[in-house]
Specification:
The chain is globular and about 45 Å long. The N and C termini lie far apart (about 70 Å). Helices cover about 25% and strands about 40% of the residues. With about 230 residues, it is α+β, with helices and mostly antiparallel strands.
Length: about 230
């Protein structure tokens, strides 16, 4: 019995240490992003979603702490917010979830830590998160966020010019088309097109969104007017 209790105690101690180390890493990840007070960038958005035909769209993204966000484009642009400020918003309060280190993997040629995010509240929109983090640079290279509102959204982040601010040069989203909110004007194609050569059900449920960022302007001070629709 004493041996069993000792094993249980050691297991609990290891889990607690694991969570503390993971929380510290996430604090460093947050610290990097929250050094950004505001930014704007040009972005080219290309979609590959079953039954949805859209030309690439040029847009401008504006962001200001804590949660002001606007995407300005002349055409319809599909963009899940989980990959931007919403990801860091979910991670900001490290006491609202339990981070568990799952192990290590190779990603983008680097050794990364894989951390599961387990929310403590059963009423939170986030159901489960999974992050692939480069501990050497405190960067999230991949995220998998499952929420009640948008299903599962996977995002891959590729850094370059704005690494110090954790702002990517490019991103690739993999979305769950059953949950992802697609504008009605676009969704009509999704609901009406039928073909005998349709892809498998699992393939139809996935879509890709590709983003390429250029001309970042970070911490230059954005006027409130850029967040107002005219």
């Amino acid at each position: 019995m004493k041996r069993f209790l000792l094993v249980v105690w050691l297991f609990i101690a290891i889990v607690q240490t694991n969570a503390q180390d993971a929380r510290q890493l996430l604090r460093e990840v947050n610290r990097k992003f929250y050094a950004v007070k505001d930014y704007q960038a040009n972005v080219r958005i290309r979609t590959d979603i079953p039954f949805v035909k859209m030309l690439p769209v040029q847009a401008i993204i504006y962001f200001q702490q804590p949660d002001r966000f606007r995407l300005k484009s002349k055409g319809i642009a599909l963009l899940p917010r989980q990959g931007f400020d919403q990801l860091f918003k979910s991670l900001k309060d490290t006491s609202s979830y339990v981070p568990v280190v799952q192990g290590t993997e190779r990603l983008q040629g680097l050794s990364v830590l894989v951390i599961n995010i387990l929310p403590l509240s059963d009423t939170a929109d986030l159901i489960l998160g999974k992050l692939w983090i480069d501990p050497a640079q405190d960067l999230v290279l991949r995220s998998q966020m499952t929420s009640r509102s948008n299903g599962t959204v996977n995002a891959d982040y590729y850094f370059g010019s704005q690494t110090r601010y954790a702002l990517p040069d490019s991103m690739v989203f993999t979305i769950d088309t059953r949950k992802f909110k697609i504008p009605k004007a676009v969704a009509a194609d999704l609901n009406n097109v039928k073909s005998s050569t349709e892809k498998s059900t699992s393939e139809k449920q996935k879509g890709m969104i590709y983003l390429k960022f250029t001309d970042y302007m970070v911490n230059k001070g954005l006027p409130a007017s850029v967040f107002i629709d005219k």
